[in-house]
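Students often ask what a holo structure prediction actually looks like on paper. The answer is less mysterious than it sounds. You provide the chain, you provide the ligand, and the output is a string of C-alpha cells encoding the 3D arrangement of the protein together with S-adenosylmethionine.
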Amino acid sequence: MVAPASPARVVATRVLHRIATEGAWASPALDAEIERAGLDARDAALATEIVYGTLRTLPSIDRALASKQTKKGELEPLTRATLRAAQYQLAHLSGAPSHAVVSDAVSIVRAQRGEGLSRFANAVLRALARERPSSPERATRLEVPKWLEGEMTRGLGAERAEAFLRARPLPPPIALRVELTRTTREALATRIREARPSGTVREGVLSPRALLVSGVGDPRALPGWDEGLFAVQDEGSQVVAALLDARAGESIADACAGRGGKTALLVSQVGASGSVTAIDLHERKLEQIDGELARLGLPRDHARIEARDLSVGVGGLERAFDRVLVDAPCTGLGTIHRRPELLLRLTPADPARMGALQLAIARNAAKMVKPGGVLAFAVCSPTRAEGPEVAARMEREIPGLTRLVDHVEGVPLAPDDDGVWRIGPFGIASDEGPDAYQVVRFGITS
Ligand SMILES: C[S@@+](CC[C@H](N)C(=O)[O-])C[C@H]1O[C@@H](n2cnc3c(N)ncnc32)[C@H](O)[C@@H]1O
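The corresponding C-alpha cells follow.
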C-alpha cells in the first residue's frame, strides 16, 4: 500500500499544471485549490511557497530537468508540473526530505498518468536527489529568461535591474491606501496594531498614504475596512495616481481605468467640486467603480464611467479635461514577483507590441486634454519599449506636447534626467518594495 501524497504537494502540482495548460493565474487558482482540498494554514503556506518558488526559479529548474531526461521532446504537462514542483523543493527547501519529495511526486504522476510516466518521474527525480545540495537555500533572486534579463538591464540599468530582481518575501506585505480625507495614517495604523498585535504595520516610504501590513490576515477583516478608511493598492500604484497631481475642483479623465484602482484616489483629490471620468475598453470592469466609491464614502455624483476603445478615438471628449492619466495596457513585467506566471506567457516581441498599442492610446488621450493641462502616461513595466521609447515618440509626433521634468507635491521621488519617473524597489533598504512602474508627465500647450 503506497501512502497518499501530501495534500500541499498535490495542490501545488495541480495549480502549476493549471497555470501552464489553462492560462490560470497563480493567486486565484491557489485560493480555489486550497479551499477545494481543505488545506490547513501550514499546508496552504507550503503549497503557496512551492507554486511561487517554482515559478520564480523556473529557468534553472528546467535546466536541471533537461539534464536528466534521456528522451528529448516535450514533457507531458502534468508530469512536467510535478517534476518542476519536486525539483524546486529539492533545490531550495531544506525542510523537505528527499525521499518524501520524490515518493510524493511519483505517486501523483502514477495516480494521474499511470505507471509508465511514474517510472520516468522516479528515474529523473532520483538522479536529481543524488545531486541535491547538502543544505538547500531559498533563491536570492528572481530568475528570468535571457531576453528578459537584457530588457531589464536596458530599461533600468544594471544596478536597478539587480535591485528589482532581488528575491522578495513570501507572502509579500499587503499595501493599504489610507483614505486621508477620513482618517490619518497614524490613526489607522494604531487601530490595526491593536486589533492584530502579532502582525506588523509599517508606513510606506514612497506614498504618504501607504501602510504595509503583514501577518494580519484578510485585509477586509481589518478595522476600518467596513468604514471605508482604506483600500488595498500596491504602493507604487498609489504613486502613479499621485503623479497626475490632480487638484480640488479639476476635471480628470482616468483613461484605461480598469476596475478603478486609481479612480478613487483621483476622486478623493478633486473633491465634490471636481469630476472624474473613468474610461476603459471593458464596461464590466468600470461597473465595479461605483461600489468602491460608495464604500470609501467618496462623492459619486461627479464620477462617470465611459466604455470605449481609446486606440480608435475620443469623439465628443476633445479638450474636455484638465488632466488625463493614461494607465496604459502593458506587459505587466513590473509585477512579476507577485505574478511570476507571466514569465510563462510573455515573448520577446511583447514589449514592442504593447508599446505600439500604448502609443495609439496615448495619441488619442492627448486630444482630451485642455490647453494648459497635463497628461501622465504610465505603465507597470520597466522596459524601454514600453516607457521611454513610447514617450519619445509621443513628444515627436503629438503637437503641443512637452515632457515635464518637475517636482510633484507629496511624492518623495524625482524623475530621471530623461523625464521618466522610475518607481520600484530602488534605494529602499528592505527586501520588499513595490512593483516597478514608469511614468512620464507631459504639459499640453495647444
Ligand atoms: C494597466 S490596466 C489599468 C489598471 C487600472 N488603472 C488600475 O489602476 O487598476 C490597463 C487597462 O487598459 C484597458 N485597455 C486595454 N486596451 C484598451 C483600449 N484600446 N482602450 C481603452 N482601454 C483599454 C484594459 O482593459 C485595462 O483595464
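The pocket of S-adenosylmethionine is lined by residues 237, 256-259, 261-262, 280-282, 285, 309-311, 327, 329, 361, 380 (CB under 6 Å).
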